[in-house]
Amino acid sequence: MSPNYMRSFSEGCLRPPTVIGQFHTLFFGSVRMFFLGVLGFAVYGNEALHFSCDPEKREVNLFCYNQFRPITPQVFWALQLVIVLVPGAFFHLYAACKSIKQEDILQKSFYTGFYIFSVFLRIVLEAVAFWLQIQLFGFKVNAIYMCDVGALEKNFNITRCMVPEHFEKTIFLIAMYTFTVITVVLCVAEIFEISCRRLGFLKLSDVNHS
Questions:
Q1: Assign residue 18 a region: left if phi > 0, alpha if psi is -120 to 50, beta otherwise?
Q2: What is the rounded CA–CA span in Å between residue 88 and residue 15?
Q3: Would you say 31 and 136 are in contact if contact means Cβ atoms under 8 Å apart?
Q4: Distance of alpha carbon 51 from its chain centroid, rounded?
Q5: What does 69-128 look like in DSSP terms, one character per residue?
Q6: Of the candidates 156, 155, 169, which has an alpha carbon nearest to the alpha carbon of residue 68?
Q7: What is the predicted pLDDT for the residue at 3?
């Protein structure tokens, strides 16, 4: 791929054709990623080390932690961020290969429909991630986790495990749910902005001067 294509692709990703899309990129790229990368590491970075069930049996701690966390939150949210970026990245890659200018995207019906589809697909992916997060992590992290160690211990089946910094993790969970909701709202608002432009209620010049 030539440097011109790469430049067009990067400009398209960083500066979508809508004002709300540009705000979404700013919100997504700075606030959400900073929150996950910096604060997420601070809250979840040493969770496996401090997760305690039986201090004398490390295999029990590892077994129960894997049961408690089938997938670590950092990995899940990182995958969510990458997957949600795919529809928009695919569209802007297509636009770069076809040499489509940003100002032409909302002028031609095919390009507009393709772009709206990418935004709609982003909404669907966020909704699926929201549901999966509920199934995996719930809305609250309890201080005590009751682990089923029947596969390891024959004497007893249930052991109590201490979850470190459970209150901070609960706050972080709620924050990530909130970010997902905000992202979905921004995507819906972007589709609404595109519809207003296509119907003539909102002109490009008016948006640029706002």
A1: beta
A2: 11
A3: no
A4: 26
A5: -SS-HHHHHHHHHHHHHHHHHHHHHHHHHTT--HHHHTTSHHHHHHHHHHHHHHHHHHHH
A6: 169
A7: 60
Q: Compute the distance between CA of residue 166 and CA of residue 66 in angstroms, rounded to an integer.
A: 17
Model confidence, pTM:
0.81
Tokens matching residue 48:
């496996």
Nearest-angstrom CA–CA distance, 171 and 17: 34
Helix axes 73-97, 166-199, angle to 10 degrees: 20
Mean pLDDT per block of 10 residues along the chain (210 residues) reads 60 72 78 80 80 78 87 88 87 79 79 89 94 91 85 71 88 90 91 83 52
